[in-house]
């Protein structure tokens, strides 16, 4: 079916009145993740072709925000939180707790629909990985990453991020 392969129009191609009308009847959920954790996950998944995390980060920084891959592009530029009024923002690392609340709000049976999530283990693993990977970066790279993700860090409560000042 030809319609299945057609590219969907971007939200930014509509004016604010059209966007408001389209999104008004939907429950809008945004899933967010610490930008440094997103970088680590992208590197570990092999999207970074570099042998070291430091050289991968340098390629990310050199690409700039306009040429960045969606895997590491700042969330604010991807999800437009100033344009779209999200009903829920779900933080990675608190999925079990927040998804349970979201399902209850939707009137759905939580025990039957919620997968087994191990948030505590995920948080510990990313805490350890973040510490290891962050230590590989130069002071200049750390500062540049904080600048690169400054809008994400301001928009979302990533208080324990290594990129927070």
UniProtKB/TrEMBL annotation:
Keywords attached to this entry: Carbohydrate metabolism, Glycoprotein, Golgi apparatus, Membrane, Signal-anchor, Transferase, Transmembrane, Transmembrane helix
GO cellular component, as recorded: Golgi membrane
Pfam families membership: Sulfotransfer_2
Family according to the record: Belongs to the sulfotransferase 2 family.
E.C. code: 2.8.2.-
Record organism: Climacteris rufus
InterPro entries for the chain: Carb_sulfotrans_8-10, Sulfotransferase
Name used for this protein in its record: Carbohydrate sulfotransferase
Protein's GO biological process: carbohydrate biosynthetic process; dermatan sulfate proteoglycan metabolic process
Keyword NAD in annotation: no
Membrane topology listed for this record: Single-pass type II membrane protein
GO terms for MF: sulfotransferase activity
Keyword Glycoprotein assigned: yes
Compartment list: Golgi apparatus membrane
